[in-house]
Write a structure and sequence with these properties.
manganese, six-stranded antiparallel sheet, Rossmann fold, alpha+beta, Dna Ligase, domain 1, globular
Length: 293
């Protein structure tokens, strides 16, 4: 019996419910015994009272992607999909993740960490800046700061979601994403948006965002991105599946943005899209994620 864990109480709740429904339907269509569980953050006792052998985690954001639910399952010796609690926590905390990646000499934008109660540190890299909560997904709470006078309002917005804020050098360029299944990379997707960046609106609300797969890179460039993505994935000890996001600057130099250890699984999500380009159906993708657990 498989429990599909969905919902949660993060800012990504709605997307998680959509992902969970898609996974649940894929399991049902293959006659796999399963049930949906909508986690609200305080109803886990209802989950533990049910009998199941595996949890398929499609909880995005805090609580589901940061190691919290993973630790609860580990403590009860219940198998689950995706990365373990430590790797999940490493991936969710953008500052911690960047420190790990830096130690592996992976390509990153310059950044500083701001704590809510502490003084603003010196920022020794040029404008524009990206101001983002350290532990939030779906581009929620992110601002582009082109003038220092905009920094206070950007920090105020980000602090609605987290006490730890990352100020990063803004890298202008094209956005790409690499999905990982097991220890293999899937075809690279290029993301084209008419917004300033690939924000929440362009991810979930806009009809103009385009996803190009195959992308417009040469085979050599695509291989380079896939190699960096796999190294970034393994550096935080992620396992099972995930997605690594990049910017390619005007010189076509790659810069890592972030990693998703529980990416979206809706009909228009990027991992299913990359899988489809590799000849893997949604149902097969779900089964392979289970096989990796």
């Amino acid at each position: 019996m498989i429990a599909v864990l969905m919902g949660g109480n993060s800012a990504e709740r709605k997307v998680s419910l959509d992902s969970g429904e898609a996974v649940y339907q894929a399991l049902k269509s293959q006659h796999i015994a399963c049930f949906k569980f909508d986690w609200h953050g305080d109803n886990l006792n209802n989950l533990w009272s049910q009998k199941f052998d595996l949890a398929f985690i499609v909880l995005h954001g805090r609580g589901g992607e940061d190691g919290v639910i993973q630790k609860q399952l580990e403590d009860r010796h219940i198998a689950y999909t995706g990365s373990n609690s430590t790797a999940s926590a490493n991936g969710m905390d953008k500052h911690l993740c960047k420190e790990i990646w830096q130690s592996e000499n992976l390509p990153l934008a310059a950044s500083v960490l701001v704590n809510k109660e502490s003084q603003l540190p010196d920022i020794n890299f040029p404008l524009p800046w990206a101001v983002k909560p350290a532990s939030e997904g779906s581009s929620i709470g992110i601002s582009k700061v082109t003038n220092r006078s905009q920094l206070d309002s950007a920090l105020t917005l980000a602090q609605r979601y987290d006490d730890k804020i990352l100020i990063e050098q803004w890298i202008a360029g094209e956005e790409y994403t690499v999905a990982i299944l097991g220890n293999k990379t899937l075809p690279v997707i290029k993301i084209v948006t008419d917004q300033d960046f690939y924000n929440y609106e362009s991810k979930y609300l806009s009809n103009t965002t385009q996803y190009l797969c195959p992308c417009d890179l040469s085979k050599e460039q695509e291989n380079q991105l896939q190699k960096i993505a796999l190294k970034a994935f393994q550096a935080i000890n992620a396992t099972g599946w995930g997605r690594v996001d990049f910017i390619l600057d005007k010189h076509n130099a790659p810069c890592l943005l972030e990693i998703n250890t529980v990416p979206g699984m809706t009909s228009h999500s990027l991992v299913p899209m990359a899988a489809k380009a590799a000849g893997i159906t949604f149902e097969q993708l779900v089964q392979q994620i289970i096989d990796e657990a």
